[in-house]
pectinesterase (Pseudolycoriella hygida), 148 residues
Amino acid sequence: MSLKNSYITAASTPEGNSYGFVSKHSTLLSNEEATSVYLGRPWRPYARTVFIHTAMGSHIHPAGWHNWNNEENEKTAFYAEYGVDVTQRVEWSKQLTEVEADLYTMENIFAGEDGQWIPNASAKFSCSFGLFYAVLVVVMFRFFGGGT
């Protein structure tokens, strides 16, 4: 839940990674004070953030994405959406095709660059923030030495 005008993500995806932050079948909520919230901005170049079939309230800034005051980030960041209205988004963001959106599966996201690490496929994640936070937790766990 957004509590103030800010950014939902600040991705620091390593260059060459296929997946970064992923929000799928989620709902973005806010309190009354949050009236202009961006979907994301890059923490570093090559940030990757994708929202697929995500319900977004009026608190989401029409531009959607912010370059963090660095136009070079527009050349390296990958910000994409599918299943939402993107008519007012920044021109350097992407609208995924159905085929591209279908690639964002648990197996593909969690496979890692070596294709060896896949969580239990029977695991169910049911929270209002959807897959995004499940991915975040697992990626942090793996990045900080919890997974192989």
In short: The radius of gyration is 15 Å.
